[in-house]
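Researcher: Batch entry, complex prediction.
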Amino acid sequence: MGAEFMWFLGAVVLITAASLAGFLHFYFTGQQDVLDWMLGRKTYNK
Amino acid sequence: MSDSLEEKIQDALLTFTDFLYAVVFGLIVAETFDKIIVSETKSYLEKTSNLLLVLGVFYFLMWDWLHGRLLTLKNPHKSYRRFFIEIVVAACGYGAANRAINARVAFLVYVVLILIFGALWAGRTMQEYPRSRDLSELKVIKIYQVRYAVAVSLGALWWYLFVRQEITITDAIYFIVAGWIFVFQYEFFLRRPKGIVGGPGVPFISHETIDRLQNSVIKFRQLIVSWFKSGQGG
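Model: Structure tokens for the complex:
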């Protein structure tokens, strides 16, 4: 496997880790309203 | 100050920002034509890889601007800070496109700056509108964009140190697929409103498909939780 492909796999892991870190931030800071909105438990009140 | 005067100022600021972005997009198209399409020094392969990369960056800038614009329409400027942030973001957008036109990986540095300034912009909007209906979305933008900025910085550093500085056609495809995965994950966590108000979303995937995928993940999570609880009970 080339260095480019390894980079691509690493990039996917980094993006996924960043997404997970964002989700866990709301989870551990107890921002239930944001989690509810993200998980669709609270609808977009437009 | 009367409300109508405030509205006129807000309209003027929006018009200025739109004009600036139109100039930036125009410059990108003009430079793409001059430096890539009619270039006599580049091979067809180099031209294709450059064009792919520019298209990817162009889409990212358009996607970012459209979502910012939609949020500004719903939460108009109350001071000039967000306006100046938007101008800096437009300048960074031009920087990103310019580096992509020259097939340099440094375009990721400008993407990082756009993400950081976007997070600052969301934070400022939250301060101006603490009771905004878009508060959840703004919170997600603020938190996620900082984390994505760290991820993209690490990715850029990795590429710069261990791969190379210039970008080939295979690299351009990897960048576009990684960019698509980034937009997909970003949109996956945002419950945007339906229709045109929700913005462009993820390329090649409808809002309905994203909704179905989100619901599947929630059902899967519920299944895991109920299985775990029944296991504890038994």
